[in-house]
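User: I'm new to structure prediction. If I give you an amino acid sequence, what do you actually give back? Let's try with this one:
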Amino acid sequence: MSIYFNRELSWLRFNARVLQEASDKTVPLIERLRFLGIFSNNLDEFFKVRYATIQRIQRAGKNATKSLGGISAEDLLLEINKMVIVDQARSFEVLAELEEELKEERIIIVDEQEVLEEHEDFIRNYFNEKISPAIGTIMINDEVEFPNLRDGYGYLAIRMVMNNNSIKYALIEKPKYLARFVVLPQIEGDDRQYIILLDDLVRHRMHYIFNIFDYKEIEAHMIKVTLDAELDMELDLKKSLLEKIRRSVHDRKDGDPVRFVFDKNIHEDTLSLIMNKLQIDNNDSIIPGGRYHNRRDYLKFPSLGRTDLLYEKLPALPIKDVAIRGSLLERIAKKDILQYTPYHTFSNTIKFLREAALDPNVKTIKITIYRLAEVSQIAGSLINAVKNGKEVTVSIELQARFDEQANINYAELMQEEGINMIFGVPGLKVHCKACCITREEKGKIVRYGFISTGNFNEATAGIYTDYTLFTANRKILKEVERVFEFFEVNYRQHRYKHLLVSPNYLRNGIERLVRREIAFAKAGKPAKIRAKINSFSDFKMIDLFYEASNAGVKIELIIRGICCLVPGVKGMSENIKVISIVDRFLEHPRVYRFYNDGKNDLYISSADFMSRNLDSRVEIACPIYDEDIKAEIIQTMDICWSDNVKAREVCAQQLNNYVVNDEEPVRSQYATYKFYKNQITN
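Assistant: Good question. You get back a string of structure tokens that encode the predicted 3D arrangement of the chain. For your 682 residues, that looks like this:
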């Protein structure tokens, strides 16, 4: 057995946990369909990024066995394909189960053969008004150049047998913006609700699309390609980073195919023709699938007014002793505040920036941005601030994966409004989440700010769990200012006594804290580390944790996704236990807790234990000095660790077994919500 799990295979095990949620009958039915959509969307992104990377390594003739955790690139591609085919097959089984359960709930999904007469007029009008103007139909022959298939679009491959027995082929392209699920009108006297998928609605109207052809048979099967999403950056020094990334995002649509998914019932001649046209070879992932692809669209499965088939609403809570009205800055001046979304409302972040924008004593605002909401109150507040005479500086990461275009658009908008824009640091992604403002008080400059584990994004704040610390601690905020100074003058090295900042100090800082626990263990004192992160894949850090385990340090890790560390192996990692929690909210915070002989050093961070976070990004790990907040975070981490409903044990065999014990059932996300609700009601 290798001493490391492979990163890609570990990620696939995480996505299998997402699929477990889709098959969990305790999860509301429509939410299970949406988990199926998350599973599919995750898989699409995996192939665009990770599979494409391994494929490039293999095509370059590199083995890369060491960096891949003990497996060659060629063998890894084969292993990935085997696992994906198994998981895809299971996902089709889950979908079939869900459709049967929908029928029991009087929700009927009909195909093109099952359309009722009462729905014919609606479908004809809907097709003519909504679909026909949007879809593209391309004949496939030697006279017409085969089109570049778009990443993630669904295509129907058409095969027509003419009355003279000749064969014609075509493609129908369905744009992403068309609603995948068409809710059909209620029929009087029938309590059932009917839905037809866009694919089948198009199939139902194919006679209209191809009525100029004299065919005797016609069939349509779905295909989909996933393209390499790597950005190929130009080397032209005359062009700005903004221009280069805009061009790279534009060129992404011409990326090489890395995965081809097709309906396994497609005619072999049609399949052969399309694969030849696409120049797909054995190094690409070729996945036989079912009748429908792009199951990520189940993320938007209509609610149909069925609140009984959705999660119960958990309204975001106010923070204890933080008033809705009045000055938030005055409250922060007295004491640090912890916001834990989505249990707490994200409105405090917006309130902070709105107040800073209007307060005549606020002079400067500096903030990092990685991903913004589609309609962002954060951006609106910053623009409002500059209009009110504040000096506003925004460091925006233009290479935030799959959000590049949105960030480019916001960057141009803010730049036009007079905001000082910093487009990252050469060779480094800016992934830290921080804000610092200066305010004049009694002739002196006072700093206020916040540091978060997650993005300043109203949309994701409702579904991602993240900590945000609001503070006026001058020692912390002075060092946050130094991070912004580094953005503007990259060659100058700053020293930090409080923050752990990558790429220069975070790795060393964590290693120092781990080695201190090792020293305590060797001295016969209690030694313990508990961390909550998204991924753990850095081999050097894993080796250090193995060393700590062998020294007797008790290590407890809550890791949502990738875990290359192999826990529970005698003589290597027997003192390390790992769990993963997948539930209605996406577990997103990074927290590091070091026992420190009972003193408990605690950090919140934007950084996972991955090489990219430790060495190739600008990240911040912020110490928690307020003892009340420290105790609060420790309590919420204790709740997570005690989860025995949605926690899976990450073991040497990667089995995804649920944690089972004799304790009272604890579903940590609901228990955390109850914890905060009790704070404001008691």
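You can read the tokens as a compact description of the fold. Here is one thing that stands out. The radius of gyration is 27 Å.
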